[in-house]
Structure formats: C-alpha cells, structure tokens
C-alpha cells in the first residue's frame, strides 16, 4: 500500500510546485471554475490592485464595463487623476466588502451614508470617494449631484455585468459610530476631520466578512441574475494600521481573513471563483521580486505575471488575436476621406 | 527666405483644407506680390500618414492619389521662410461632444446628462490638445517658421438635420455655456502651442458664425444638403475663406496687407 500522496501531481508538492518552478509561470495555480472570454462583460472593483486588473483587461480589448469614462483621446493618467477609467464606474478604490455592499444598497435607495460630504481646504469632497476630485468641488450640492448620477451608473454597471471581479484589500476600516457607515479613508486623511465622538476604528472579523460577502453575492444575483464573481486578494500590504499592533502582524491578519473568506465563499458556490494573484505575487520563490523597493507596491513584472496567469487560463491564444486584430483605428476627428478628396479635386479645377 | 527677386517664399501645406487657399491663389498672388506662395495638400488621412524626413514631406504610399495641382510627390520645407500648416483639428469633435454631453457642475445649466467638474473638463481639454501639440512637435519639430492654422469650424448650416449633420456641434450650440468653454478651449490651444514653441493662428472671428461655426457664405458651391450624396460638405471652405484667412494671417505673421484690386476685395469681404 502506497501513500495517498504517491499519485498526486507535481503541483501538490512545495518543492516541485513552488521552489523549483518559475515564479511568473506556475502551472496549475489557477484552474478556473467557469470560462471568461473577451466577450464576457466584466465589472471590476476593489482595492488599488484591482486597477491593474481593470487596466490589463482594457489593454487586451476585453469587454470591461465602464459606465462613466468619456470616450475621447484623453491621456490615461489624466482620466485616472479624476477617478475615471480605473474601474467600471467612478467609485475609486473599494477596500472592503462592506463598502461595496454599502455602495450597492445606497444605489438601490436602501441606505444613506452618514456624513456624506467632507471638506478639504474650503472645498467639498465625496466622503465615499474622496480621490475622484483632487481639488474638491465648489459647493456641497455639486457633490450630491455628481453622486446621484454616479449611483445610477453603478447600478447600470451591475446590470450589464456577467462577471464581477472584486479585489479584497483591507479588513481595517473607519466607520461612523451611530450609523455604521464605512469610509474608504480615515477622516482627516484626505479630507474631513477626525472626531472620535463620531468616528471609530473597526477591524472586520472573518465571520463579519463572510457575512458581507454572502450578502454582496445575494444582492448582485438579485440585481443581475446569472452573474458570477471572481474574488482576488490584494497582495499589497497595509500602509499603516490603527489596530495597535505591528503593521506586519496587522497585514498578516488582514490578508489571512480576506483570503480565508474568499476561499470559503468560492468553495461554497459554483458561481464564485478565486483568482490566486495574491499567492503568485507573495510567492517566497519570487524572493520579493514582484514588489517595488517600498516592499508594498507590485512591480509591472508582478502585475504582468498575475494577468498572464489569468489570460493563459481563459484566453491562451489571446496575444496572437490581439496582434492580428489591432488595426489602426480611424480618427473620427479626421475629415471624411471622400469629402477631403472632393475639396482637393475642386481646387485643382479652379 | 527670399528669392533673387526679393520675394518671400511661403508654403501652405496640410490636409484638404489647403484647397480653400489654392482656389484663392490668383488673388493671393495679386494681393501679395512680394510673396511667392507654394501649395501642397493631401487628403487628411494621407497627410496624417505622410512621412517627414530631413525636412521633406512625402506621401507614405507612392500610389496615393495624385491631384492635378500636386505637381510633385514631395515637398522640401527648406526654401520657405513661412510654412503655414493647414487643417489641424485639435480633437475638435471630441471636445465638442465632451462639452455638449456633460453638465458642468459649476455652470448653472442642467440637462440631465452626466456631470463633470470644471477641473476635470479643463484637464481633459488640455490633455487632448496637448496630445495634438506633441504629435505636431514629434512629427515636424518646433520650427519658428511654422504657423499652425486649425481647420475651420464647420459651417453654421451643418446644424440643420440632413446629410453630414454635425450632431455634436448642434448639441453644443444649444448649451448656454458653450461659448465660454470654447473660448477656454482656444486659450488652451494657444497656451500649449506657445509652450511648445509653436505659433498658432486661430480662425479669424470675422469668418465665424458665433464662437465655433463658420459663416455659410464660405461654403463651397454645390455642397449643401441638396447636393448628391457624397458631395454634401460642411467642413471645407471656398476661395473667399482662403483669401480672407490668408490676409489675416499675412498681417499677423508678416505685417502685410493686400495691395491693389485685391485690397478692395478684402475690404468688401470684411465689410
């Protein structure tokens, strides 16, 4: 009688599956539950690592939903500075499952955030997405008007989506004491004022996160029957912790909870999958090469490795397809060719 | 640069919008005897793809349609003291749509369209203009002999439904803040071009119908909506336009005004 491990593949063993494997191309790390094609309508959201996912999908001309970005030849960094082109709607980074859930409930009219408008140097910002207007807005009603339309666009994105890709970023959050409203940043950081009477720190537990993810899934399916979820965990460590513990301990807790919750949800539902970009980036065999010098930000190589894993699984011939189908796009600002020539021919006759 | 007769050599080069100037060539010749003006125009896409190497512009495709008045397949910029580049649109269509199909938060008017902040709109306009400025500099360099003349705004009649209807322009013309924002757009063009070391000459106001349309009297004959399909054209102007703009540009850049009969024509045009 042999061991039950005798017949297992190389991917089941650390030495052959990790230590001896090329960190940027580990076989069998991602085995999708369901296919995603370039025609699949994908909605993206999550912490800052999710921006890389969105950008990579857009770069490959996948059907990534974007309900708010103007279609114009505007430099990406300029769009991004105002929160456009980062995700499927202009919600900025969504670090926690609670924040995503809260956003959808607000869009449905089931929830009204407390203290929705913060100030910064005499200007007004949307407390739920304080980065989208770097200079803030002139009047509070401008924030409200912009948010009303934004919420409609969020719902439109969900209703169009066939797959929702969500990157879990944090368990630590700042919330309004009375209402439980959560915010993407601590008051007083980018805007607003920190008043301990009104705001409190909270670190989500695994059961809380599991419950939020369950409710998020339920709501998404209600809004868009048949929608599937792909969960990822951001490999980016915490910038700072308010937990009172060392930031490395807090990062470990946060990532462990996020990873466990994502795994449990994926194991529980056929329409939820887990994409292991976290494992690929944090792989010890990479010896930190997927992190920049600050040991937080993911390098371009790391992002490319993660997205290569995604595309290899879903679209192995994609690179060839993109190369063959990236014809020069017509510039709609050009004058009509036929009319152009007519004008010149007429000039010749004159 | 001048030739042995003391004439300044001027080149008008660019897209199909060079046609308006070419059709005015006799008046330009009469009105500005001290100028020797050459013309080199190509349809927009062919001009966009034309190669510029060592000061010589030539069509990328040797088979590109040759026009009767294009008596040469390439043009050397070296002999000219003034090179007027015609037809740059500075992403006008995108600009108009961006303005027309958003509600600017800081403006009073509301249409129910997506809101955009003044800061974002200004940044977007700047980005789009800058991309064209960078393109010009990358392609031709920042030569102080150049004067960039944007393509004329579409004719006012283009807002009437029918063939070649300018939908974005029509929508924009109905927005109360359009004039103010088009003025900002033009200021951005001027500022960004100056920063790049390039001269730009915006469409003279006397040729415009409002802030961002051209008067219908500059339409080429037989191009209104009653013309056969494919000949309707609200974007390319006639010789009067070429003459009018050349006069304005000559004064701006060379300090010259037209002489003789041409002068009276010019005075009549400007009324």
Reported for the largest beta sheet of chain A, the result is:
4 strands, parallel
Structural class of chain A: alpha/beta
Largest protein-protein interface: A-B, 41 and 52 residues
Q: Which percent bin holds the helix content of chain B?
A: 25-40%
Cα distance, first to last residue of chain B?
33 Å
Structural class of chain B: alpha/beta
Topology record:
The complex is a heterodimer of chains A (350) and B (271).
Chain A: H1 14-19, E1 42-46, H2 49-59, H3 76-81, H4 97-107, E2 117-120, E3 123-126, H5 140-160, E4 163-168, E5 172-176, E6 182-183, E7 199-203, H6 206-223, E8 228-233, H7 247-268, E9 272-274, H8 277-282, H9 300-314, H10 318-325, H11 337-349
Parallel strand pairs in A: 1-4, 4-8, 8-9
Antiparallel strand pairs in A: 2-3, 5-6, 5-7
Helix pairs in contact in A: 4-5, 4-6, 6-7
Chain B: E1 8-14, H1 18-22, H2 25-31, E2 35-41, H3 44-49, E3 51-53, E4 56-58, E5 74-76, E6 82-88, H4 92-100, E7 102-104, E8 114-116, H5 118-140, E9 146-150, H6 167-173, H7 178-195, E10 199-200, H8 239-254, H9 260-270
Parallel strand pairs in B: 1-2, 1-6, 6-9, 7-8, 9-10
Antiparallel strand pairs in B: 3-4, 4-5
Helix pairs in contact in B: 2-9, 4-6, 4-7, 5-7
Give a verbal description of the structure:
The complex is a heterodimer of chains A (350) and B (271). Chain A has one domain (24-322). In chain A, 39% of the residues lie in helices and 11% in strands. Chain A contains eleven helices and nine strands. In chain A, the strands form three sheets. In chain A, strands 1-4-8-9 form a four-stranded parallel sheet, sandwiched between helices. In chain A, strand 8 (228-233), helix 7 (247-268) and strand 9 (272-274) form a beta-alpha-beta unit. With 271 residues, chain B is of the alpha/beta class. Chain B has one domain (8-92, 126-270): Rossmann fold, CATH 3.40.50. Helices cover 38% and strands 16% of the residues of chain B. Chain B contains nine helices and ten strands. In chain B, strands 2-1-6-9-10 form a five-stranded parallel sheet. Chain B has a three-stranded antiparallel sheet with strand order 3-4-5, with no helix packed on it. In chain B, strands 7-8 form a two-stranded parallel sheet. In chain B, strand 3 (51-53) and strand 4 (56-58) form a beta hairpin. The longest helix of chain B has 23 residues, at 118-140. The radius of gyration of chain B is 19 Å and the shape is globular. Chain B starts with 7 loop residues before the first strand and ends with a helix. Chains A and B meet through helix 3, helix 5 and helix 11 of A and helix 1, helix 3, helix 4, strand 8 and helix 5 of B.
